[in-house]
Amino acid sequence: MITCLRQIPYRTGLALCLCLPLLSSCMMGPDFQRPETKVSSKWLGQATTAPEAASVGEQNLARWWMVFNDPQLTSLVERAVQVNLDLKMAESRIRQARAAMGIAGADLGPAVDTAASYRRSRTPGSGNSGEGVTSNLYRMGFDAGWEIDLFGGLRRGVEAAGADLDTAVESRRDLLVSLSAEVAGNYLNLRSLQQRLVIARRNLLAQEHSVGLTRKRFGAGFVGKLDVVRAEAVAATTAGQIPLLEAQARQTIYSLSLLLGGEPSTLLAELTPDSSLPMAIATVPLGLPADLVSQRPDIRRAEAKIHAATARIGVAKADLLPKFTITGSLGLQNNTFNSVFNQASSAWSLGPSLNWPLFDMGRNRANLELKEALQEEELLAYEQTVLGALREVENALIASTKEEEHRQTLVQAVAANRAAVDLATTLYTAGQNDFLAVLDAQRSLYAAEDGLAQSSRTVSTNLVALFKALGGGWPAKEASL
Fold first, then answer.
1. CA–CA distance, 311 with 322 (Å, rounded to integer)
2. Contact call for residues 389 and 296 (beta carbons, < 8 A)
């Protein structure tokens, strides 16, 4: 403390104490400026559209999974939002950030402490015959202190804590986006696997029928043993695919159970029965590339991190300057309890103090350089996040468009291969063709049907990826946590 403050007259000191709060309007450090995003004026690709496509308005982007018109999918997503453990941890981090903001805000106001004590002591007497003195001391009172935020360091701290809270909120929203997409993706994959199992079992029945037919013709001497072996090999190959698909389907149910905060067996009874793969061809509200800044939580989170880093530069700059504090005390002190409340026992003090770190081996300046470097890193991370978001949307757009084209060709391939199987079987039965043509037709049909099932799943999951890339999956108005 500067000793010259002791010589300030009482009224001058009191006036200084009253004026210091009025001077605390200065704010050190740069003010936060939202980073500019230079992006293209339009998207390169186009979303999948059709005359009968469902329209998804911007207000429904938060519940995009409704376009699949699958009540079970809707139920799974909504339940996951309620019970997912990662989401609950994110909500806990929001409450932590809100509490930290309250702690930072508390430093802006005065702090008052109260204390009371009693002490009994004995001092030795003087000389050989002196008697000691036993005394009591009763003390009680209040101590107060108020750091005047003259250069805005404390207010910048509150600003940084508020940006940290925004970061936690956007992290939860980003998790909502990822969670809804992950639940939908797993559900679509499960239904696709079940559909592929149906196809595999249906083809296996047809191939086993061919095995039986070939054995009869071999027994009658119409064909050789080679036809029987070939038929058995094709059927065995198809049968070998079924256990693998069953394992993948069971593992997918386990994954969905985990996303809903349950044990692996939680959803077995609900999801084991076969169901068709939900398909949706929807017109998606792409908007402009610049709209991603407001739609995607990960971009908003990156922006909040820049805000926090910028505010902490102001805190570091304020640490280079003096800190002013008003301190005061009011109390009672006496040797006897009955007299402790007398006017003569009262004591008080009030006055300003100044603290200025003049020499710290460059610690505070190094801290300022650190905060500036951290802000630069967050700016670069923001730019990288925006570029990554643009790439995700463009990838989803081109994937959706081309996969739908691929699916249409597979639809034609399945129809042609079914006709080929029927024709090859008829000719073989009539003795006008060898059995190899039947086997080739059956293999081609199974491959085409299985490929169509996988392509149908990919079309749906690409639509999920597009909604996720656009930042869909969280409501604009949320209840406070």
1. 19
2. yes
Picking from 460, 480, 58, the residue whose alpha carbon sits closest to that of residue 292 is 58
Tens of pLDDT, residues 295-334: 899 999 999 999 999 999 999 999 899 988 888 888 888 7
For 220, the enclosing helix (H) or strand (E) is none
Provide Rg for the chain, Cα atoms: 38
- Please state, in angstroms and rounded to a whole number, the distance separating the CA atoms of residues 136 and 338: 12
Residue 191 zone, left/alpha/beta (φ > 0; ψ -120 to 50; rest): alpha
Q: Which residues of the chain have pLDDT under 70?
A: 1-25, 45-59, 125-130, 281-282, 285, 476-481
Alpha-carbon torsion 242, 244, 249, 253, what sign? positive
Contact (CB, 8 A) for 108 and 155: yes
Give the domains, in start order, of the chain with CATH numbers.
Answer: 26-109+153-323+377-469 (1.20.1600.10)
CB contact at 8 A, 145 and 111? yes
Query: Which DSSP category does 336 fall into?
Result: S
Single pTM value for the model: 0.83
Q: Hey, what are 311's tokens?
A: 């505010």
Alpha-carbon 471 to chain mean position: 11
CA neighbor of 383 nearest in space, from 478, 295, 299: 299
Task: Tell me how far apart the alpha carbons of residues 184 and 78 are, in angstroms, rounded to a whole number.
Answer: 11
**Is 305:378 a contact under the CB 8 Å cutoff?**
yes
Token pair 């949307």 is found at: 393
Contacts of 356 (CB under 8 A, 6+ apart): 321, 322, 323
The token duo for 7 is 């010589």
Query: Who contacts 37 (Cβ-Cβ below 8 Å, separation ≥6)?
Result: 290, 293, 386
Residue 30 in tokens: 């740069």
Q: What is the DSSP letter of 191?
A: H
Q: Name every residue whose Cβ is closer than 8 Å to that of residue 244 and which is 6 or more positions away in sequence.
A: none
**Single-letter residue type at 284:** V
CA distance 394 to 388: 10
CB count within 10 Å of CB 240 equals 11
How far is residue 173's CA from residue 297's CA, in Å, rounded to a whole number? Answer: 6
- Mean pLDDT, the chain, rounded, equals 85
